[in-house]
Amino acid sequence: MVLAARDEKALREEHKEGEGGIWRMLEALPPGTITWQPGGIGKLANGSTLQLTTWEGAAKRAADVLLIDDADELPLPAFQQLREKALQGPVRSDLPRLIMVSKRPEQGWIREHWRALNGEGVRAELRASDLPEHLRREVALAAPESFGDWISRVLPSFRWYPHVTLMVETAQRLIDGEITRLLVSAPPRYMKSLVWARLLPAYHLAMRPDEWVGVVSSSATLAEIMSADARGFYREAGQPFRNDSQDKALWRTPKGGGMWARGVGGWILGVGMDLGIVDDPFATPEEAMKPSVQEFVERYFWDTFMGRKELREVGERPVSIVVNHQALAEGDLRGRILRRELEAKLPSEGWHVLTLAALKRARKEPYPPSVTIIPEVARWDGEEAEPRERRLGEPLCPQLLDQDVEGLLRLEASNARLFAATHQQEPESDSGGGMFERWWWSFICPRERVEAVASLPLTEQLAVLMASGDIPVLHREARAWDIAASLKGEGDASASVRGGVALRNGRREIVFTDAREYFYPGHAVPDLIYETAMQDGPGVDVILPAEPAAAGKILIGSATGSSPGLLQTRLEAAGFRVVVVPVTGSKRVRATPHAGAAAPLRNAEGKEDGRMGRCFLLPAIEPLPDRTDGWTWNTLFCERHQKFDGVTKPLDVADAASSLFSDLDSTPFLTSGIW
């Protein structure tokens, strides 16, 4: 048997002079058991020989059993020479012919050659019982736990749902180097961040403590929480830390590796990564729909994050990258990576894609031909069943509350657009009808400010918020109407939008504070408008369209306003200021000023520079009482504007908002700010 160490220093310090070294162990045997000869060769009483030498020395003689220490540091050509020596001569014992002791045997060529050796029928194993006691721990490390076994040990409460098992198996392929670029998307709360951003970094560092893991999320706080959780799992696995570095944002192992965590936009300096993970880079769906935010995240990913990859030599295991987030918008990071692959303007990154939709359905848009789709093969029918592909219509995890087919369909009915993105991973187009973008609408104040006064009527809410300075003073308020006369399912809706105009930072700003749709028969519409006005109060003007149709004349008056109708007379008698707006031009033409003001500002080069337009929304707290889908008026307002193209119904809310904008924006102001 030959024990081969890296060099003379390692041989002396680790195997001869070191406490517990094999030389010391053999010297402690009864006299006559072993006789040492020049060259570090020991003759055992049973006729066997043991030689302690270096890798270079071991390559000069044949051996029945060759033990290579620190094999992960052995260059491939030297390994091939030693392997040839190990396989020379007849097999004389039950011992393995080749024993490799490695702290990192799962890396690169070591793992591949190990598989090849076993495939040749030659006994080339790692068996702790064949080694001296002090080497057994290293041998145990040389046959590492799989990711799944490791999770079961450090987190016994882990729930092994079929889709989670599939994610863990995919992660093992990433660890093994079979996958180096991975896009993962799954519904919210389906354990994807636990697997990819918390458990995987800890396992990677437990197996490769000399390497670095980097995690980026939407905020530094969230990224540091993930890092702290990973640190806890690493500790639970019994792994050591470097004493001077256990911070949440940066912690290190004694072997020179560690983990760092940053928020999107955070500067990464002085550290690299062997495994990089991007987890949920957008804070909210609204943020994910803003082109300026999408572009910022994309540029940060390619220019900053990917720039931290450790350099590798040709033939070495590449740096692995995981992008893990639920699909939120057509142009989010996942969407932009896929679009980059589809355009093929740059060489393909070789992405693998694991898409886990809540309900299995035929995909609407094909994937780029350059990506590899990971099939959904799992034991969907129970642990004892054979793995199979998930069938169309089958839910991803019916064991979770409200995630069976019926529960998912209810979620879809409540907000089909959001469900398509977050649960099905197929977001609808960001552009909608083409006039308004969903991300244009910013809140005028934090949501919690409105929550504090939510029990008050809207007019009183606004008065309190203006008095406290939470929203700017609305110098004039109004509610504009778009009138129809039909029941639900029979025709267009009537719609109203309320808002006010403010002077802030030297410009007029329009704050929308309410939006509603109504399906009322014609005879009930006048009472609806009157009762709504009474709820708003006389300080809120009423803007009515002078429709050329007969119904409009009866409700309001003639197109010229010369003969006021019953409704207008009734409102003015109650103290309301009524503005009758002639309806001219197409709906698209009437909406153009509104769209222009809502759009973000542009710099001298015509590019959006991050400054928002001058239209804002008051945050909505409660769902609309007449809807069964849980929509707030904010949702109604944004959805209707998103779809508005001037032709495709429903058009009523956007039409009323355009009328309100045009009237409020024309409000005259004196230099004192009083109109």
Short description:
This protein is of the alpha/beta class and 675 residues long. It contains 23 helices and 23 strands.
How would you describe the overall organization of this protein?
This protein is of the alpha/beta class and 675 residues long. The protein contains 23 helices and 23 strands. An eight-stranded mixed beta sheet has the order 9-10-8-11-12-7-13-14, with helices on one face. Strands 17-23-20-19-18-21-22 form a seven-stranded mixed beta sheet. Strands 2-3-4-1-5-6 form a six-stranded mixed beta sheet. A hairpin with a 3-residue loop joins strand 2 and strand 3 (41-44). Helix 8 packs parallel to helix 9 and helix 14 (405-414) crosses helix 15 (416-423). The model is unreliable at 115-143, 558-562 and 671-675 (pLDDT under 50).
Describe the secondary-structure layout.
Layout: E1 2-5, H1 8-16, H2 22-27, E2 34-37, E3 41-44, E4 49-54, H3 55-58, E5 66-68, H4 76-86, E6 98-100, H5 108-119, H6 133-142, H7 147-154, H8 162-175, E7 181-185, H9 192-207, E8 212-217, H10 220-236, E9 250-252, E10 258-263, E11 275-279, H11 285-288, H12 291-305, E12 320-324, H13 333-343, E13 352-355, E14 372-373, E15 377-378, E16 388-389, H14 405-414, H15 416-423, E17 442-443, H16 447-451, H17 458-468, E18 476-482, E19 494-504, E20 507-518, H18 525-536, E21 540-546, H19 550-555, H20 566-573, E22 578-582, H21 587-598, E23 615-617, H22 633-643, H23 652-665
Parallel strand pairs: 1-4, 1-5, 5-6, 7-12, 7-13, 8-10, 8-11, 11-12, 13-14, 17-23, 18-21, 20-23, 21-22
Antiparallel strand pairs: 2-3, 3-4, 9-10, 15-16, 18-19, 19-20
